[in-house]
Write a structure and sequence with these properties.
Length: 200
């Protein structure tokens, strides 16, 4: 488990999203944050009904995933969120810590920029803000940086096998998403609701 951002390997968000989705065998829910997080989830497996694709609601992947985790405590739930998006709802970390959803994991993609709005620097880059340290200080004890792909896999495995909440921080490159999500929020909602109505 990596406690600091020192010497982290910069990884590729799309490749890691595929690795994550490939591990999910028990109808786990995945909430894709807006923009690239969402598009990579779509590209990884658009046939999964358990994927929820956010359109235009920046900062809400973790809160939505938290709601799903509370509503369905036997289902593992993952949020895929960028560093800029999480900053918009930073208080959700304290709420999640206080409620302690055992089945929730947040994967934080940190490239230090607001990529879909023009590449402006986030505090991760401009001030050295450590988002995983903020999660830990908020009360989420199981919060760590993934040093490389092998550690990412190990942290995902821990999130699938042990009580959370968990936060997995990943330093990523600036490759843009290659798969634009369909613009069909009603279909996404209905498909996700049907999937959530089925057991795990």
């Amino acid at each position: 488990m990596t406690d600091t951002t020192d010497n982290l390997h910069v990884m590729n968000r799309a490749a890691l999203t595929k690795r994550l989705v490939g591990r999910l065998t028990n109808r786990e829910a995945v909430i894709g944050g807006i923009g690239n997080s969402n598009w990579d989830l779509w590209g990884a497996d658009k046939t999964r009904g358990e994927n929820f694709y956010m359109l235009g609601s920046m900062g809400l992947a973790a809160p939505i995933a938290f709601g799903v985790a509370i509503a369905q405590p036997t289902r593992r739930v993952f949020a895929l969120e960028g560093d800029g998006s999480l900053l918009m709802q930073l208080g959700c970390l304290s709420t999640i810590a206080s409620q302690k959803p055992r089945n929730l994991a947040i994967i934080l993609w940190d490239n230090g920029i607001y990529q879909i709005t023009g590449g402006q620097g986030t505090p991760s880059r401009t001030a050295g803000t450590d988002m995983v340290a903020i999660a830990r200080a908020s009360g989420i004890a199981s919060a760590a940086w993934a040093a490389d792909e092998a550690e990412f896999d190990a942290l995902v495995g821990r999130a699938l096998a042990t009580d959370g909440p968990h936060v997995i921080g990943v330093k990523i490159d600036n490759e843009p998403g290659r798969n634009q999500t369909d613009r069909d929020p009603i279909r996404f909602r209905e498909t996700f609701m049907r999937a959530m109505a089925q057991g795990v």
